[in-house]
Amino acid sequence: MIKQLRFSLLLCALLFIVSACSEGTYSDLEEFVNKSGEGLQGKVDPLPEIKSFIQFTYQAFDIPDPFSPRKNQVKESRNMLQPDLKRPKELLEQFPLENLTMVGTLQRDKHIFALIRTADNTVHRVKIGNYLGQNYGLITGISDTEIKLKEIVQDSAHEWTERFSTLMLQTQEQKI
Q1: Rounded Cα distance, 108 and 143, in Å
Q2: CA gap 160, 150 in Å, rounded
Q3: In whole angstroms, what separates CA 92 from the centre of its chain?
Q4: Region of residue 57 (phi > 0: left; psi between -120 and 50: alpha; otherwise: beta)
Q5: What is the pLDDT of residues 96-109, one digit of tens each?
Q6: How far apart are CA 115 and CA 106, in angstroms?
Q7: Helix or strand or coil: residue 115?
Q8: Using CA atoms, how far apart are residues 156 and 135, in angstroms rounded to an integer?
Q9: What backbone phi and psi angles, to 5 degrees, belong to 24?
């Protein structure tokens, strides 16, 4: 019985609230909507003029086709840089250049030699004309502080190009 009484009171309160909202007039809102459009003058820009398509016929038959692979157009001058692949490889050509370290030099008469340490901590003596690294690195110069190399590498078009590198002397401070 108490539940029914509570329910009926709640229902009456709800009906009162709903009826209070429905009786209001919206004259102020209607007036605002009517006045908001006054004084507005809309202007739409005209559409841009459509340019006509100019037809073009491809007549550049003398220049290379951009869609054909460059592999077929190998230049003879680049092929001359190709390393001698039949030459027997030297011991230090099996190591990447990053894994080789110059640790010193020796001089006998007028010949200067560089001392190279490999990743397995063995030391090798090299001279100008020897090869280092995996990119056919020919030793072109040795000084007290560096070894100069001329490497021959393939670029992205599989053409041989020269690259010059330097292997610097590693001092005790650089080891730490």
Answers
A1: 14
A2: 13
A3: 32
A4: beta
A5: 999 999 999 999 88
A6: 7
A7: strand
A8: 15
A9: -70, 155
